[in-house]
Amino acid sequence: MIAIGRFLFFSLLLFFWVLLGLSIIALYFSWCSIHKKQPIIHWWSRQLLRLCRVQVSIQGQPQTEGAVLWVANHVSWLDIFIINSVRSTHFVAKSEIRRWPLLGWLVAGSGTVFIDRGRRHAIKEVATQLQQLFAQQQVVGLFPEGTTTDGLDVKNFHNSLFATVIGAQVPLQTIALRFFAGNKRSTRFAFTGEQSLVANLWFLLSSKTPARVECVFIDRLSAKQSSQMNRAEIGQWAHRSIRAAVIQ
User: Fold this and answer.
1) Residues β-bridged to residue 185
2) pTM: predicted TM-score of the whole model, two decimal places
């Protein structure tokens, strides 16, 4: 009964917070500049994590200014908001996410770039959008596994979008997301397989022990270094960097 009460209480708070986010997108984001959106996205994401009882610790030195591609392993729908709580980021996401109730509308309104892998020219179209964002000194976030995992290891990367880094001449920084329940690594909060969003929220909000996430900024690859590599080599470098931090 205590778990049910905890879930209902935090679910209600979360519902109203999401409604506030959608209202901001509809009434303000539709006409304001990309730079005015950033502090709001940063603030809103931090508060969302608090309502979800997610404790985030930042390790390493994130690049806080200028254009950069942030590459991370993918564990949960929370990943977007965890990284946004560090610096407002434009993510590349599969087009199916746009159709999610509420959360899909939120990530779309915050500037997510969607990719439809079933379309022939999808990669080229997304690459053009990313080049435009880099030209505006924005951060782009990429989850090259293409799906979520239990968070204890890293799947192979899809390397196609790493060519954008070479063309745009921007640096790349790797990120490892490590999920804990208390002081122990845990798969409890991973959003994987056929699990529904409601089921994942149940594990997250009803848990006696709140989720804890280490967001570790690991290695940097300068624009000069990436220009001397092809996309497969960049993908292999990023995979090694992230996997070494995830499995430790």
Assistant:
1) 180
2) 0.93
| Nearest-angstrom CA–CA distance, 222 and 63 | 12
Helix (H) or strand (E) holding 145: none
Q: What letters, b where the CB count within 10 A reaches 16 and e where it falls short, cover 95-119?
A: eebeeeeeebbbbbbbbbbbbeeee
The domain locations on the chain are: 2-246
The pLDDT profile of the chain, 248 residues, written as one tens digit per residue, is 778 888 999 999 999 999 999 899 888 887 888 889 999 999 999 999 999 999 999 999 999 999 999 999 999 999 999 999 999 999 987 777 777 777 777 777 778 888 776 666 777 888 888 899 999 999 999 999 989 999 999 999 999 889 888 888 999 999 999 999 988 999 999 998 788 888 999 999 998 888 999 999 999 999 999 989 999 999 999 999 999 999 98
Q: Is 19 exposed, middle or buried (0-12, 13-18, 19+ CB in 10 A)?
A: exposed
Alpha-carbon span 230 to 248, nearest angstrom: 28
State the CATH architecture for 2-246.
3-Layer(aba) Sandwich (3.40)
Collect all residues with Cβ–Cβ distance below 8 Å to 103 and sequence separation of at least 6: 18, 77, 97, 197
User: Smallest Cα–Cα separation from 48: which of 25, 24, 27, 21?
Assistant: 21
According to DSSP, the residues that pair with 215 across neighbouring strands are 58, 177
Which stretches of the chain are assigned E, i.e. beta strand? 54-59, 68-72, 90-94, 113-115, 139-142, 172-181, 184-185, 211-221
Helix (H, G, I), strand (E, B) or coil at 184: strand
